[in-house]
């Protein structure tokens, strides 16, 4: 499908096929980590894969037929998009409040509430200092299950420390005011990724509440060759999914709780840099993690399982060399449910269980920094049956399903340091 970039205050409807997008190989390695604007591929027809560009690793073969380049749906979903907020600071995440307003995080370390008219209120006070260099900053935000009673929220950020930084998860009470802003009270860092490392890449992260007193936290492996192998080490907090309670403690039945030397908070390991995560309709966690040149992965992390990075991976290094030994499968690691080569550069993810866009019911909607739009993944028995692209002509940093059944995408323009919020509905 092709959706043209919308001007503020306008809304256009489309139901046309469009060129798919692929990675821009002219980008520097640092830029490719989070994606550059893509080159356009050729026309992709219904029933054929949305991705039309050649893979970076053409000799690599999927482990099973449904693992990559799934066909598009037979009929594209007709959608309508509308820019509802623009010229916001460069955002990283958004979350709907019970009254329908949006709580958003800005990369440079601020938090705001955006009202139904698209206006941001005063900066919320009480946030800790963040390290906003590179891919750092103020990252994800999520509401506690009892938010309406407690006002409790969680947020992740690149925490500046002596000797470097690391991803941290904080808890706070959000006190709203009549001016459209508010303050954070009782701010407490409940979990910190260790070890500290002096870098500016691969912090993750996404927060996924999963019950009254449990949440998942995804973190990156910090990118650099000298430390990324720690994604395979149970004593390191790099390249993991953690499962913890609201106080930051390990859940009692976590897989490594009784393993000597292992971090008890670990749920799964061998991840690269996960910036997309959501629960499905059964309450199971799914993630999409960044690959290098090729190799973005959709996974359903299971307790104690190893997802391979950097020993087993699809795609190639930014230099063009094989990743590790060039191995895409072995008996000790899990295969991804699906992978992309070239990358989409995933950031943000929502499971759609509304009825306003019935074609997307039960699908995951993933933001694409490189694909500059939404990637809609339709599943059948936990395998990808089809993949749909909704171009937005902008880097998508976060995706949420709204209380009105619409899908909301946070876009970013790093060059200008600005963001917009786009509302996507079915075009009837």
Automatic annotation (TrEMBL):
Tree of life domain: Bacteria
Domain called Glucose/Sorbosone dehydrogenase: residue spans: 90-415
Originating species: Devosia elaeis
High-level lineage: Bacteria, Pseudomonadati, Pseudomonadota, Alphaproteobacteria, Hyphomicrobiales
SUPFAM superfamilies in the cross-refs: Soluble quinoprotein glucose dehydrogenase
Gene3D superfamilies given in the database record: TolB, C-terminal domain
Signal peptide: 1-22
Protein name: Glucose dehydrogenase
InterPro entries recorded: 6-blade_b-propeller_TolB-like (IPR011042), Glc/Sorbosone_DH (IPR012938), Quinoprot_gluc/sorb_DH_b-prop (IPR011041)
Pfam families reported in the protein's UniProt record: GSDH
Alphabetical keyword list: Signal
Renumbered residue ranges of the record's region Disordered: 25-78
